[in-house]
Amino acid sequence: MSSQAPTSIPQKLSPTDPSTVPNPLGDGKYIKSAGCLIIGDEVLNGKTKDTNSNFFAQFCFDLGIELKRIEVIADDEEEIVEAARRMTEKYDFVVTSGGIGPTHDDITYASLGSAFNLPLVHHPETLHRMMELSTPQRKEELKNATPAQKQARERMALFPTNSGSGSENVKSEVLFVDGDKWVPVVRLAGKLCVFPGIPSLFQQLLLSLTPYLPLPPASSKPFRHLIYTSKPESVIAPYLTELQARVKKEGIRVGSYPYLYSGVHVSLIGHDIERVRALGQEVVREVDGKVVSEGKLGSEGKEAKA
């Protein structure tokens, strides 16, 4: 498959200017919920250990975004199509990880094209950056590549793209979020962002994407009280069950998490700071515990050792 001739862009390969990128969710809206889709047979068969979902979970927590779902699926078009459509419909921000390399089983872009009824088109600027940001040795290899090798390489710049026919309602964006990387973040329907599976690259691009996201304002972030008790979870379970039933209508969530086999962390999360603090003191008394951390999600102080 032949590619288009690269368009002329500045020799200095700068990232996309965030100020030129409109809010993908619409004016005044911001991300509240998120989903993570890990794609790859190698994760399901144990060959590769997934760390990207954990990094994304921490990323969302730090920004006050509620991560609602993490899924791991095979390199299967039907599964990718179904999961992408469902998660994009339900959540404000969805990331995929994996399946965008040069080999036959890297089918993420093609599958997402099917999911959103978008044709695959070579992206000229990506092809240009692919060459310009390669090492001299790699550039020489690319110049001497066979047609098949070149085609495989250029598959990584073959993105689901608006054609103006049947796909007007699905926006496709190519965001160069890091000037040192030729790999862009492709965003579809304003919500779904496509990332490579390599952990270091996933992390760098995700962090660099932050300025392009309509993030929750600080005022929208819930407040969390974290309490440690040395009592076993089975002992405090009846009280926590009663507490959750009592405060659920107030929008306050109660959680308990065993801590290194020596006690439990009890978490209280809600928007009414004074109410959460008052309940925190109640929990401290009832479970004979102590507060180890409190604050807005993503901005809490470092938790004390229990």
Automatic annotation (TrEMBL):
<feature type="compositionally biased region" description="Polar residues">
    <location>
        <begin position="1"/>
        <end position="22"/>
    </location>
</feature>
<dbReference type="InterPro" id="IPR056596">
    <property type="entry name" value="FLAD1_M"/>
</dbReference>
<dbReference type="Pfam" id="PF00994">
    <property type="entry name" value="MoCF_biosynth"/>
</dbReference>
<protein>
    <recommendedName>
        <fullName>MoaB/Mog domain-containing protein</fullName>
    </recommendedName>
</protein>
<feature type="domain" description="MoaB/Mog">
    <location>
        <begin position="35"/>
        <end position="216"/>
    </location>
</feature>
<dbReference type="InterPro" id="IPR036425">
    <property type="entry name" value="MoaB/Mog-like_dom_sf"/>
</dbReference>
<dbReference type="InterPro" id="IPR001453">
    <property type="entry name" value="MoaB/Mog_dom"/>
</dbReference>
<feature type="region of interest" description="Disordered">
    <location>
        <begin position="1"/>
        <end position="25"/>
    </location>
</feature>
<dbReference type="Pfam" id="PF24102">
    <property type="entry name" value="FLAD1_M"/>
</dbReference>
